[in-house]
Specification:
The protein is of the alpha+beta class. Helices cover 18% and strands 21% of the residues. Strands 5, 6, 9, 10, 11, 13 and 14 form a seven-stranded mixed sheet that branches. The chain has a five-stranded mixed sheet with strand order 4-3-12-7-8.
């Protein structure tokens, strides 16, 4: 990915949303801080409750995937989701997730660490500067999006946790609350949702903890209060509503591996040469392009091969899929 110094906030935000944000900043007397100010977690929570947009830190040179790729419309990003805790239909999360309570929110850090700890959203804001990163995202079902995330590198949280020398993997566990998450009342998966990364994958600078998208606090249907973003892997690796990190010596068994190991492997790297047993992975449909748009060729590692291929040197990616 390259940096594009010509990008300004108005170019990556729908005009009506940008105008509302600009009006808010002006009315609040914060116009001079737009693009540079980073609000604390408490401010973010208060303003989110008021329906405002508190999390954007307009990067002067945000990361872009490619200069010729358009952002997926905000409406599509926030209404077409896989989040089985709220239903299996793509439009269920936008309807059902609004009862999710995301404040206060903490993450428990366990396993092979020097001292087990719990960290809240407010403290996370101090770990590393927030960045806006525009990533190409690819779902195992064959559809893709381009999303401007707001978050920080997972490596900052890992360094804070101080893992021991035995920590070879990071396991992520999501919220388990059937009262707020109606999809968990059904045996679609063995709840809570679990995922994992090898330590070098977790420490890679492309791997993010996302707290927002399109400059706004992460919508509930997109994984609030925080989620994992690993852009060279299929979307099911991007576990949502994380409440626990567990550092382990052995490879964790993820939810989809447990449900169907034949179809869903641990690594889940985007690979056009390894088809899903029920459909091809050689092409994809970009959400927002229209139903009759020509399918796109799937890129190895979702287009990030130059930055991540070395992580899998010597591995048989047809076996370790």
């Amino acid at each position: 990915m390259s940096r594009d110094p010509k990008i300004v906030p108005s170019e990556i935000t729908p005009q009506h949303c940008y105008q509302q944000r600009r009006d808010f900043l002006r009315l609040a007397g914060l116009g001079a801080l737009a693009g540079t100010a980073l609000l604390t977690g408490l401010q973010a929570q208060a303003q989110a409750a008021a329906g405002r947009t508190p999390i954007r830190q307009y990067a002067k040179s945000p990361y872009r995937v490619a200069p010729d790729e358009k952002l997926t419309p905000y409406e599509d990003v926030t209404t077409y989701n896989n989040f089985y805790e709220f239903g299996t239909d793509k439009h269920d999360p936008a309807k059902e997730a609004q009862h999710l309570k995301t404040t206060p929110w903490t993450i428990s850090v366990e396993g092979e660490v020097m001292k087990p700890k719990t960290i809240g959203i407010d403290e996370m804001f101090k770990l590393a500067p927030l960045e806006e990163r525009i990533y190409r995202m690819r779902c195992v079902e064959g559809w893709s999006m381009v999303i401007p995330w707001v978050g920080f590198e997972l490596s900052a949280l890992i360094r804070w946790a101080q893992p021991t020398g035995k920590a070879k993997y990071v396991e992520f566990i999501s919220l388990d609350d059937p009262l707020m998450m109606p999809g968990q009342r059904l045996p679609v998966l063995d709840w809570p949702y679990r995922e994992g990364l090898r330590m070098d994958e977790a420490m890679h600078p492309l791997t993010l903890i996302a707290l927002g998208l399109y400059g706004e606090i992460l919508p509930k249907q997109n994984g609030a209060a925080l989620r994992l973003v690993v852009p060279w892997k299929y979307g099911f690796k991007g576990i949502k509503s994380i409440v626990k990190l567990r550092f382990t010596e052995q490879m964790p068994f993820s939810s989809w591996m447990q449900a169907n190991a034949r179809e869903y492997g641990f690594y889940a790297n985007v690979n056009p040469q390894v088809d899903h047993p029920r459909w091809t992975q050689s092409s994809e449909r970009r959400i927002g392009d229209g139903l009759f748009a020509r399918r796109r060729k799937t890129l190895m590692f979702n287009g990030y091969a130059e930055k991540v291929a070395h992580l899998y040197q010597g591995m048989d990616l047809t076996k370790h899929f």
